[in-house]
Specification:
The protein has 2 domains: 3-167, C8orf32 fold; 172-258, Tetratricopeptide repeat domain (Serine Threonine Protein Phosphatase 5, Tetratricopeptide repeat, Alpha Horseshoe). It has 12 helices and 6 strands. With 264 residues, the chain is mainly α. Strand 1, helix 5 (86-92) and strand 2 (94-95) form a beta-alpha-beta unit. The strands form 3 sheets. The protein has a two-stranded parallel ribbon. It has a two-stranded antiparallel ribbon with strand order 3-4. The protein starts with a helix and ends in a 6-residue tail after the last helix.
């Protein structure tokens, strides 16, 4: 079984194997990675956390868990592919909020602490079921509705208003897609186009793709000078697109992609 199939197999197990699935995503980019060894490292971290948690009801231990991770030098770092590769986050103790959140979710699961991932736009957040606040994975700060609105304002400058869909739990497939999209962005930003293409393929395989997902892969195919791949994704983006102006732009781009290059 290759790394991609192992990731999909973990996904079929639901939340119980999400961190392992993320390790298999990392294994696509690092053939030397042994997920079983990383899971052993994670269990050692669980033991260390368990011995330091306060004697509180399980429903009150999520924030102390996040603060303990912070005290153990797990901090936010959103730059480069290492910030989203699960094994590198474990090794470096630095990562995007998404990966710090995934780590906290896995530790919470192993410690029987109720905790859910929240698919908040622009920044992955956490919530204890039934709580009136969310938690920031990078340190455990409590976020109330006012704080969530301010987060959206800072990131989207008033173009996106808070609604109930932003506060919903993140299903396993969507979480892995979110990891893959972020990894695709980081690899493309680093000029690692073939690595980014792996991530773009995975996004489409993990769940229902969006117009943006197909366009992201079309852009990669264009930069890799692969016209058939670019046309395939432009066609699928056009089928999914509902915006008239965007459909016109996609139709024109598809026409250009179909035109043979002129040789001088």
């Amino acid at each position: 079984m290759d790394a991609r199939q192992a990731c999909l197999s973990c996904l079929r197990q639901g939340t119980d194997a999400l961190f392992e699935a993320a390790l298999w995503i990392a294994a696509e980019h690092d053939p030397t990675l042994q997920p079983a060894q990383q899971l052993t490292t994670l269990d050692h971290l669980r033991q260390r956390i368990a011995s330091s948690l306060p004697a509180l009801p399980a429903s009150e231990q999520a924030q102390p868990l996040l603060r303990l991770l912070n005290a153990l030098d797990f901090h936010e770092d959103a730059s480069g592919p290492d910030s989203i590769l699960a094994h590198r986050v474990l090794q470096r103790r630095r990562g995007q909020p998404l990966m710090l959140g995934l780590l906290a979710l896995e530790l919470a699961r192993r410690l029987d602490i109720p905790l859910r991932g929240i698919n908040f736009p622009g920044r992955f957040l956490l919530r204890v079921p039934g709580a009136d606040h969310l938690l920031d994975p990078a340190g455990g700060r409590r976020l109330y509705l006012k704080d969530c609105r301010e987060l959206l304002e800072r990131r989207y400058h008033g173009q996106l208003k808070l609604n109930s869909s932003h506060l919903q739990p993140c299903p396993p497939a969507e979480l892995l897609q979110r990891i893959s999209r972020s990894l695709r962005h980081q690899h493309q930003k680093a000029g690692q186009l073939l690595a980014a293409l792996k991530d773009a393929d995975r996004v489409l395989q993990l769940g229902v793709p969006t117009v943006a997902d197909h366009l992201a892969r079309a852009d990669l195919y264009q930069r890799l000078e692969c016209p058939p791949g670019e046309r395939f994704d432009l066609q699928h983006a056009l089928l999914l697109c509902e915006d008239p102006g965007e459909r016109l732009r996609l139709t024109e781009r598809l026409r250009e992609a179909r035109s043979p290059a002129v040789v001088h």
